[in-house]
Specification:
alpha+beta, 2 domains, 135 residues, DNA Primase, Chain A, 4-stranded antiparallel beta sheet, 5 helices
């Protein structure tokens, strides 16, 4: 999908250089408060009133968000496990330290700790590199 085709789906599209001012479909705008533009083969959008992004605007128009990108959105295998590793290690370290010092651990924090440990075990089983910090 091109920027011009996407802009035609909006109410009151106004061309401004390489971008368009449009009425935001997320909050049923009557005056153009959103802007859409194309950069590096991607159609980007932002509403200055409700802070909606291009994907939210596309969904409100009934357009598949993948249509806004010239290339498919591919992620490498196990990207979320790699992304959460540092946060998981920090939570595990704090939990272990608090437990060692005899502090009470809230149920909610213990549940989070269990989730982090499960992800750590999954990383280990998949053979993903990880640095484990011990207290």
């Amino acid at each position: 999908m091109t920027l011009d085709e996407f802009a035609d789906l909006f109410d009151k599209p106004r061309k401004r250089g390489n971008s368009y001012s449009v009425c935001c479909p997320v909050h049923n705008d009557t005056n153009p408060s959103a802007q859409i533009t194309e950069k590096d083969g991607k159609i980007l959008g932002h509403c200055f009133s409700c802070l909606a992004n291009g994907i939210e605007m596309a969904a409100a128009l009934g357009v598949n968000p993948s249509m806004l990108f010239s290339e498919s959105l591919e992620r490498e295998d196990h990207w979320m496990l790699k992304k959460t590793q540092e946060q998981d290690d920090t939570i595990i370290l704090i939990h272990d330290s608090d437990k060692k010092q005899g502090r009470r651990i809230r149920y909610q924090d213990h549940q989070l700790y269990r989730q982090c440990m499960a992800r750590r075990s999954r990383r280990r089983a998949l053979g993903l590199y990880q640095v484990i910090i011990e207290a």
